[in-house]
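Page header: ASSEMBLY MODEL / two components / 398 residues total.
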Amino acid sequence: MKKYAKIFWDAVIPNNPVLIIAIGLCSVIAVSNSVKSALLMTFAFSMVQIPSNIIVSAMRKIIPYEIRVPIFVSVIAAFTTIAALLSRAYFSAIYEVIKLYILLVVVNCIIIGRAEAFAYSHNIAESFFDGAGMTIGYGLVLTVIAVVRELLGKGTIAGIQVLPESFKPALIMVLPPAGFLMIGILVGALETYLRRKKEVRK
Amino acid sequence: MSYLEQLFKIFISSFLVNNIILIQFLGLCSYIGLTDNFSSSIGMSFAVIFVTVSSSILAWIIDRWILIPFNLQPALQIVSFILVIGSFVGLVQIYLRKASPNLYKAMGIYLPLIATNCIILGATFINSMSNYDFVESIVSGIGIALGYALAMVMLAGIRERLRNSEVPDFFKGKAIAFMISGILALAFLGFQGIVK
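Prediction written out in full:
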């Protein structure tokens, strides 16, 4: 059990897909202007990441090495279709807004990367925990950015008024440029932290 | 409004107003990854222009002649688009390697990168969602690809100049590229409202 906890934890923080590996940024920047979209995006991501890890891991002995990438992509595409149809059925209002990014989960580098780097060489249980950890890691970053942006940009969290009426929302935070600025600050903070850590070790 | 005006509107909208990188945030991996070198950003831009336009055509044909008539659009659209575009890019790469080694050297190494790039697939989904007809899809594909090239070349040029200037310690590396993109995106917001 301890082994699984370690795989899970490794995927959430030390190997955080968004911040440390810096992949899959497109959707993070695009849907992080409201908490509701961020949560729906995380839901769609989990519906693709976890099952595709499990299926790839279950089939790893029969997938020929040379054509593994097209097979990964077809597995992921099938689950993306399911996730998109589910989101459209149950959360249609938010789905209409972030439709494009949910469809594009299919080319999300994190999912293909995990199929290739982890699921293809590990057993089913390990792949499940890795997928779950990746989802949590992705969702955490996305939700944190979304909370900050929505709070400053509209004064609300998930549509509920939090800041007092007298607070003048900074509209820029919910517009596209702020996504870049937020990621820039986060990446800068992280790289500075890693650089300092390295210097201390020397 | 005449058809030509309509086409022009679609072009401006996909090229500037809804710039694929700065406003829609697609294809950021290559945008940040390849722009620290001016020539590789140009090579990638040409490869993207070529593939986006040809896959817009392919995807329109699949969408209108196969998926919609047989009522398969919601279930099979993602799978069929990605497989057709992926294999098309693979074919082009094999053909280029044999037919024109020079062009392959300039463009070929970027082709596998863009087979699963969000822009290509994003462009086809945008076309399909907006119900564009055949010519409109091509025009929108051209606009999206040129918008990508514009953003790539702009950021690559700025990053080239940044090499000789002092960047605050905090923003060294990738972070400054994101901050610059943020400012560029702010400028592009100014185009909002040109096209109704």
